[in-house]
Design a protein that fits this description.
heterotrimer, A: about 190 residues, alpha+beta, two-stranded antiparallel ribbon, 9 helices, elongated, C: mainly alpha, three-stranded antiparallel sheet, 3 strands
Amino acid sequence: MTEEERAIEAVLMVAEDPIEPGLLAQLLEVPVERVEEMCAGLAESYQTEDRGFVLVRVAGGYRFQSHADMAPYVERFVLEGQNARMSAAALETLAIVAYKQPVSRAQVSAIRGVNVDGVMRTLQQRGYIEEVARDPGPGQAVLYGTTMSFLEKLGLDTLDDLPPLGDFVPGPDVVEALEQGLRPDV
Amino acid sequence: MTEEERAIEAVLMVAEDPIEPGLLAQLLEVPVERVEEMCAGLAESYQTEDRGFVLVRVAGGYRFQSHADMAPYVERFVLEGQNARMSAAALETLAIVAYKQPVSRAQVSAIRGVNVDGVMRTLQQRGYIEEVARDPGPGQAVLYGTTMSFLEKLGLDTLDDLPPLGDFVPGPDVVEALEQGLRPDV
Amino acid sequence: MPYDVATPVFEGPFDLLLHLITKEQVDLYEISISRIVDAYLGELDRMEHLDLDVATEFLLIAATLIELKTRRLLPGRDDIDLDEELALWEERDLLLARLLECKTFKDAADVLNRLAAVADRSVPRRAGLEDQFLSLTPDLLAGVTADMLKDAFIRAVTPKPLARILLDHVAPIRASVQDAVEELVDELPRAGVITFRHLTQELVERLEVIVRFLAVLELFKEGLVDLHQEGNFADLTITWLGDAAVTLESLSVEEYQG
C-alpha cells in the first residue's frame, strides 16, 4: 500500500457522500488519472480478497458501500438493529424544526439543551427534514425545514395547518437561542 | 473470508454508531465470542495489509475509522467543530463527572470551587454528559454521567478503560508542598 | 513573588492557590503562608472582572488564608482557645484536602485530553445506509398526529428548572464584608488611629474578625487607611487617611455583593 492509496481509503471511509476524483487528486497532489488508477486498484483488491464491502464509482465520485451479496444481512440490520419507534427526543427535535423553520442545528441544540446531530441526521435520512437555506450571517450555518413528505405523513396540506400554539409563549432561553444562534464554545 | 466476516464488514460499513457485538451475533446467528474473534481477525488483517482504515472497539461496539496516520488528509473532510479542542475548564469538569458519576452540578461546582453551570450545559450540548438520575435526597438534584459519545471522543470501550483515579492522586512531594504552604505562622 | 506577564486565567480559587503554592515548590522549605497570602491577595487585586459567585469563593479562601496568617493578630492570643485552635487546623486540613482533590482532577483532565487528542486523529465512518435500504426503515411518523407534534414542541421549549448551586455557605461573608466596611467608615474617622486588636476586641466569632480584616484590606486598597506594623508579630495599626465625608457609594465594595 502506498501512502496515496492509504489516504484514499481513509478519506473515503469517513466521507458521507461520494468523493470526486478531482478532489482526491488535489488532496494528494497527484494527477486525476493516477487517482482513478489507484481507486481501480483498490476496488480490485477488495474484490480479490472477497471483502464484504466494495469501492464503487457513483454520481461522479467514489465511495465505499456494502457488497450486494450482503444485502440480506444489511436488511436484517435495518429491521432489527434500528429503533422502529420515534423517540421522544426525535419527536421534540422534529417539532422544533417544524414550528421554527428555517432553523440551524445549533439553534435546535440550544433549545433542547443537548446535542442533536445524530437525531437531525436520522430525521434527514428519513426524509422528514431537509436543508432549505444558509444563514446569511458569519459561519453560514445550514438551515433546516420540513419536507413535503413530512406534511403528507401528518396529513397536512401546508405548514399553516400545523396546530396553532395559541397563547403559549416560549421561555426566555428559547427566544435567546433563536436570536443568537450559535454561541462560542467553552 | 467467511460469509460471517463479509457480513460484519458490510454491516459496519453502513452503521452510524459503534455496533455492539451482541447485535452482530444476533444478525449472524453465531455466539458473541465468535463475533469478537472475527472482528479481532478483521482488524488484524487491515493492519497487516497496511490499510488506511482500521476496525476498532469503542464505546461498547465495533466501528470503522480512518487510520491515525492519515489524519492530515482526513482533517480536511471533517466537519468543522467536530474535533474542536476543549478548554481546560471543560476538561476538568468532564474529568470530575467521568470519575464521580453520578454526580450533581453542585458537587462538581464544590470540587472546582467555581460555578460550573455554563460548562456543564455546553458539555451536555456537545453530548459528552447527560442526566442519568435524580438524587433521592431532598431537593432531588439532577445527577449527571458521561455518555457513549464521551467514550467515543476518548476512544475508550468502557468506563473501566479510564485510567484509575488513584494514578492521579498527588505524590508526597506535592502534598508536602501544599501542607507547607498552608502552615499557619506561629 | 515574580509576576508573569502572561497571567494564566485562573479557573477558581483552588486553581490559583495551587498555582501559587506549586510555583514555590523549588524552595520547599521556604514556602510561608505569608508569601502565599500576599501573592493570593495580589492576584485578587489584578482580577478585574470577577463575577459575583467567583468573587465570593475567592474571598472565602482568602479569609481562611488570612486567618492562617494572622492568628497572632487575633485577640485572645494570650490564652489560646483550644477549640478555636482545633477549628483552625480543621479548616486548614479541609482546604488542603480540597486542593489535593483539585490537583487530582487537573491531572486526570490532562490524561483525558491526551486520550482525546489520540482519538481525534481517527475519524469514524458515519455514512449510514445506502439509499436502497432506506425504504426498509420503518416509517417513524406512523401514528404520530399533528397534535402530538404540537405537544412535543411545547414540551421542548418549556424552560426546565435549573439545578441551583447552594450559595448559602458564602452568603454570610458576602453580606458582612460590606457591613463591616460600613461600620469601619463610620468608626475609623472618629478613632483616627487604632490597632486591629482594639478594633476587634469586642467580636466573638472568628469569622467576624476575618471579615473585619477583609474590610480593612478593602479600605487600604481604596487608600482610605494606612496600615503599619512595628515588627513581625506586633499589633497592626490602622490610620484613617480619608476625610470624614467619604460616602459608601464612592467605594468599590459592590463587587462583593449581590
